[in-house]
Amino acid sequence: MNLSRTSRTLLRAALVAGLAVVYVPLAVVLLNSFNSDRTFSWPPAGFTLRWWSAAWGSAGLRDALWTSVQAGLGATVIALVLGTMAAFAVQRYRFFGRETVSLVIVLPIALPGIVTGIALSNTFHTVLGLPLGLLTVIVGHATFCVVTVYNNVLARLRRMGLNLEEASADLGADTFTTFRLVTFPMMRSALLAGGLLAFALSFDEIIVTTFTAGAGVRTLPIWIFENLFRPNQAPVVNVVAAALILLSVIPIYLAQRLSGGDPQTH
Amino acid sequence: MTTITTTAASPGMRRRAASFLHRHAGVRLSLLLSAPLAWLGLAYLGALAALLVTAFWSTDVFTGDVVKVFTWANFTDLVTGEVYRTVALRSLGVAAAVTLIDLVVAFPMAFAMAKLASPRAQRWLVIAVLTPLWASYLVKAYAWRVMLSSDGLLGWGYGLTATVVTLSYLWLPYMILPIYAGLERLPNSLLDAAGDLGARGWRTFRTVVWPLTFPAAVAGSIFTFSLSLGDYITVKIVGGKTQLIGNVVYDNIGAANNLPFAAAVATVPVVIMLVYLAAVRRTGALENL
Amino acid sequence: MRSPRPRFARPSLVVTAALALAAVAGCGGGSSPATGGSGAAPGGGAFTPPKIEALKSLGAGEGQVNLVAWAGYAEDGSNDPKVDWVHPFEKATGCTVNTKTAGTSDEMVNLMKTGEYDAVSASGDASLRLIASGTVAPVNTDLVPNYKDVFEGLKLKPWNSVNGVPYGIPHGRGANLLMWRTDTVKPAPDSWGVVFDPASPYKGKVTAYDSPIYIADAALYLMSAKPELGIKDPYALDDKQLQAAVDLLKQQKQNVGEYWSDYTKAVQSFKSGDTAVGTTWQVIANLVEADKAPVETALPKEGSTGWSDTWMVAAKAKHPNCAYKWLDWIISPKANAQVAEWFGEAPSNAKACAETSDKSFCDTYHATDEEYFSKVHYWTTPIAQCLDGRTDVTCTDYSEWTRAWTEIKG
């Protein structure tokens, strides 16, 4: 590739600068979690670990975290199943309305969250008469999480081709066995990447959740939203955010590691 | 493809099901499509349709109950009210600005990641880009509020500009990742070939790189555009006295308890996004999400 | 939710029920007021509530009580282990408390209509709707021993009673105040005119509450600034009066730097000097002062808008005895002091002032100052029937106020 030295340096500089800009606010958040001033004023007034211990002891926070995890897992599982099915259908078959399927899958995430939120809430409550709760949250999240799995699996299927599956069939494996022993292992990393992104989307989602959660269900973003307004609790929120940032590196790293580990297709 | 069956005496249920499925592609297809389409096609689209229907109803002023009588009143108010036009255009402008900024910022970053970094570094770079997505959206917006306040790190103040900057920041990873994926797929040999033919950096970019990664860029833009168009939280945090169309919808649902009007207002961003999606379908961006 | 006041446009999460339930036309008891003519009479200034009997006598506790409350009203230690008045109640009465936190008044009304809850902490707008729809019953104050210690200024008010019959127990009250930075705003203002001044020297540094209900604040100012408009009640505005208020607010917008709807935003704004003058709550003022920023607050001479919440008992409560016990508990001196301090409002029980951990709490919040509160116009939802009793015009309702607010913000 013949990029001049200046181009290369400039591009690298852009990358570094960009990442720096991305991480400065996160550093501010981290700093504020130690800030003894409750309203995040700058520069930080003093250093304290009070908020970290308060966060540790807060039962409300723990419940919210658990609810978010449950919602995320539920939504991810559903998204994995639906996304994979749709991806297989679109990639492997030709049928009328194929393009529309892609469009419909993208729609929940392409339309503004507030629209999805009020549409789903209206349906649940008015049309179906369902009480709003964790289940409706999971349904709402799954709806827009499908697309991440769908795209990852689709991309992988495109690269994979049918050769190995045909070979497996030639060797006598039936449809289910082929899927279990050949197709699935080849798709693992795509599923993982898609699932991880779906979980992240669900974990941090607030707008659709606001409308589908009802009064009793409190996910982490909802808890954060509520507590950002309480002077005594707001710094604890920073702690939560800081902790999330630090902890999230682990699953992301794992996902990246595992992406390289798929059996090669050629 | 023929299945060479073994010489087992009578194939079991599972085997029979498997062969049936294998031979009847149509059945396989419908089974595969059934659940996703039921969920997204029927349920989700149905929910949207139900919402649209509500837009044609009205609210009883005293009891607050919805009156299920067809009326154009909501849409008439929407179209004739000057403020709604202003807010809609403003939201459109914000979404476009955010998309443009993110595109300009993300492309060089993604290019450096895809082409100039070693495979090992690439993995860490992707992690570095993904990690901020896990920091709560709200907290990031508040961090920006802190930085933008007059005694904060940046001190630029709140308002429309602050909103655009914050939104650009929040959605940047959503633009970087698809472009990075697209650039990764771009074979280096093409770039070498362009160089061999005499094209320098900018020419190569304009004639080779950009056209090929255009779908990926558009894919990223779908996220940034849509997320900015409907957002009502960030603008409340850093927007000063600005309001966007998401706020109008939100205010009408909660405070005013006027779902029909809120639904009518909500059709505006929906229509915009549908038009956008229709336009980008041809570019193949939908496969690049 | 902690932030006590922005019921109307609080960036609250639980909007779902509000929108969905509102869309339920005629579902359950939704539209009952109109039936039988005993509900709210359109066009009349007052209304005749449905005939419901208050509880005659208190029996044994049923073992459980289901509440609908604002966040922070029924703390059980899950947010801060030291902030808990629910567990002591459960120990004392044997009634287990299940609280459903609501985000808006609309949601509270709808939750109560389901019949699943026994008591609700209703704001001035919700309370009337609940009474009119027959969702809540009158309260027999003889069964609430602590009621006698409630400030007289809160008893039998238009939002918690009808025709002399009390429908609830006052929880607390607070006023929206004028706050200013003493280093930038001189001389010290005593009138809302300082935020409505078109030629304000504080351009870009004025703040206002981000909710349609703020229109009442403008109307309140116009009551004395433009008496020819004939505004008697800032929540009862006919088209002309509403337009005048809207014009005033549009003019104010030129000078507004930021509209606020949550605590930390307002506190930070004043602290950093981004805002120099505007509407505030006592608790915000306390926080700003605690962080050493130079501010002062005052209740301007025109008076102010404010709020007062009422605990009400459901007409079809499944656990009425425990509900009454809760009502008595929450206004008992110690619990009332605790919730007032946690929330940031004036307690309703006079004896609570002796129980606050901050000994000057009641003074700061003007709990015993009836003169102070006589100038407060408590939040009420504007409805088409004029709240000031006029029958010759139709007043503007809250959905019109919301449209107007959208227009004002532009």
Describe the structure.
The complex is a heterotrimer of chains A (266), B (289) and C (410). With 266 residues, chain A is an all-alpha fold. Chain A has eleven helices and no strands. In chain A, helix 6 (134-160) packs across helix 8 (175-204) and helix 8 (175-204) runs antiparallel to helix 11 (234-259). Chain A is globular. Chain B has helices at residues 13-23, 25-54, 73-80, 82-116, 119-130, 137-148, 160-185, 188-196, 201-230, 233-238, 245-253, 259-281, and strands at residues 58-59, 66-67. Chain B has a two-stranded antiparallel ribbon. The mean pLDDT of chain B is 86. Chain B contains twelve helices and two strands; from the N terminus they run H-H-E-E-H-H-H-H-H-H-H-H-H-H. In chain B, helix 6 crosses helix 7. Chain B is mainly α and 289 residues long. The two termini of chain B are 33 Å apart. The radius of gyration of chain C is 21 Å and the shape is globular. With 410 residues, chain C is of the alpha/beta class. In chain C, a hairpin with a 2-residue loop joins strand 5 (161-162) and strand 6. Chain C contains 14 helices and 15 strands. Chains in contact: A-B, A-C, B-C. At the A-B interface, helix 1, helix 3, helix 4, helix 5 and helix 6 of A face helix 1, helix 2, helix 4, helix 5 and helix 6 of B.
Strand content of chain A: under 5%
Summing up helix and strand content along with how strands pair, one would put the structural category of chain A as: mainly alpha
How many DSSP helices of chain A? Answer: 11
Order of helices and strands of chain A: HHHHHHHHHHH
